[in-house]
Amino acid sequence: MSLVEVMNVTKEYANGEESIRPLDGVSLTVEEGDFLSLMGASGSGKSTLLNLIAGIDLVTSGEIVVADTDITKLSRGKLADWRARHIGYIFQTHNLIPVLTAYENVELPLLLLPMSGAERRKRVEIAMEAVDLTSRASHYPRQMSGGQEQRVGIARAIVANPTLVVADEPTGSLDDETTEQILLLLERVNNELGMTLLMVTHDADAGQRAKRKIRLERGRLMENGQELQTAKLRTA
Amino acid sequence: MLKFVPYVLKSLWRHRARTLLTVSGTAVALLVFCFIGAVQQGLLALTSDEDSGRTLIVFQENRFCPQSSRMPQDYERTISKMPGVKDVIPIKVFTNNCRASLDAIVFQGMPAEKLKAWRDIDLQSGDMASFASQDDAALVGIDVATRRGLSVGDKFTIGDVSVVVRGVFQSATAAENNLIFTQLDFLQRARGANDVGTVTQLEVHLNETADPDALAKQIDDEFRTGPVGTTTRTKGMFQADTLADLAELIGFVHWLGYACVGLVLSLVATTTVMSVQDRIKEHAVLQTLGLRPLRVFNLVIIESFLLSTLGGILGVVGSSLLLSSTGMSIAAEGVTIAFEPSLALAVQGIVVAVVVGLLAGLAPGWHASQTEIVSALRHA
Questions:
Q1: Cα separation of A96 and B291, whole Å?
Q2: Residue A131 lies in a domain
Q3: Which residues lie across from A199 on neighbouring strands?
Q4: pTM for this entry
Q5: Widest distance between CA atoms in chain A
Q6: What CA–CA distances, in Å, run from A130 to A32, A123, A126, A182?
Q7: In terms of residue numbers, what domain contains A85?
Q8: CA-to-CA distance for A215 and A26, rounded, in angstroms?
Q9: In this predicted model, what pLDDT tens digit does every residue of B358-372 receive, in sequence order?
Q10: Does residue B167 sit in helix, strand or coil?
Q11: Which of B4, B42, B47, B311 could pair covalently with B337 via S-S, beta carbons 3.0-4.6 A apart?
């Protein structure tokens, strides 16, 4: 069974009197250990799909099963618990908590899991080491560069050893050199730590670094020039 | 949730000017709240303690200000013989201001042995022997001494009455800490007046079986045909009647106490709303990381609770220090209301701050917890 199964997902929302449907019955599977890039034009719905898979947005119809849990059936509270255990989210604009140090930002997801203080410290140190920011642990976001902030964001996303790491335009606000560093880091997360990675990007070069490249065009998912087949709903 | 308290504290510290202003505003409001409470408690203590129901005050009929009540001192002997009477204290009262005043000085002249027998006072300095042996000696209540900076050996004059301080006392009855006790005959002769043989009031102590109302009527009936008619009431009723105007005012002022509570509610709620609006995106990030909506709600509640409680504690401590260090009181017609801090009032103030803090966080907390993550993440 695939790690992620997106089945006939439609997302529709109102924009004034107009109804917008960025996703129209899309289906997708992601296997464990995949590094998948999701590309498409601006407004094509790629971030919407990522947010649906990450459980921070709700489908209009269809099913999304991640690690054998149909997340479209979960209540808001249960969905939050599920995210804490299964999802690591890397934002485009880092979104670190400004009043917390790098260490505390990385520690944040672990506060939601049943874990001893010693175990928490150990995991944060490993994550900080993985992104090579041990020396910056006590620094606040305002004391760090954009690249360093994003590395802290990556450490925060991987620290709880999630089932799936999702990254929404992780290099969108970085210069070329820093983009390269972040992409290398994401590759390491996938190759060395074995984490499944789903990355949304509008940068074709960045997208090419993934093992699987998917394009979202006019509400349809394309891989290698072929539209991905519509899956059967589990509940159908 | 305790794991997130450092985050809440750091968030408050991030906007320290706003936090400081809210805490100080809350502290001032709670200070006023406790101050009003102290005045109300002072009034309540005067009219509701056990002594106020078992002691009668005989006053000249149709007289209000102590200076205008002049009863023959020998009424004392007549009343003493009545069944149910334990003792009678003849008291001469002099006050520098008969109207309501925050700094009225009230002298009560009475025989030294009666003072010792019937006033539960504890001398903080000086001694009773030198008071009893010196004609112009005075025992000064601790609140008057604090207010006027008086200590043993000081001589002072108020309205032609000059006394030497021979002791500073603390009374179990808070209002008495605003009195100055002298010898009866000294006050009768003070200010060049020849009031020997007359007193302002008679304090009648009853035994356990006596009926205060019946005895009051008996006293007034006894002197109806005498040289001076009397009005006799229980001490509580006498004080309530004397302070009726002030009591009405104090009754009205308690609305200001409620206004203070409303002020704290609106102040803390405004700050919390601003804080939530500033951090729409931050709360969305926390929810993305897996914080349940209820936990986000709790974070906001903890924040408003801390603001209000910290301000409340400062206000309560401030009012206690102010009230205990200044010895403030208000007096009218020789009866004083002490503004006394009390543990009950402090606890009440802190409970009000805690409850208001929790209430103030409800709406912003609910708003924060219901944030749609995706749209909030797009928030600038």
A1: 15
A2: yes
A3: A37, A167
A4: 0.80
A5: 54
A6: 21, 10, 6, 12
A7: 33-58+75-220
A8: 12
A9: 999 999 999 999 989
A10: strand
A11: B42
